[in-house]
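Comment thread on ticket #2218

A.B. wrote:
> Attaching the input chain for the structure job we discussed in standup.
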Amino acid sequence: RQRQMCIRDRRYFYYFVWSSRLITYYIKQNQSNTAIYETRKMLAEAEDDDYPEGVASCYRMLGNLYLTQGA
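C.D. wrote:
> Ran it. Output below, let me know if you need it in another format.
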């Protein structure tokens, strides 16, 4: 049980760093296409990991990106 908690905690931080740090960096550098690409890559991986919090984070980030682009 403790091992499962450790794996879950690692996944949380893994997706947190990917979405909150890397993708935000691309947004601030006005590289929205790269940010969308990374978010879609993250979404595919979160779905493969069966990690719903990661999937939700991806959809939230994609929504924000598309809203910012006006697409």
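A.B. wrote:
> Thanks. Noting for the ticket: The mean pLDDT is 84.
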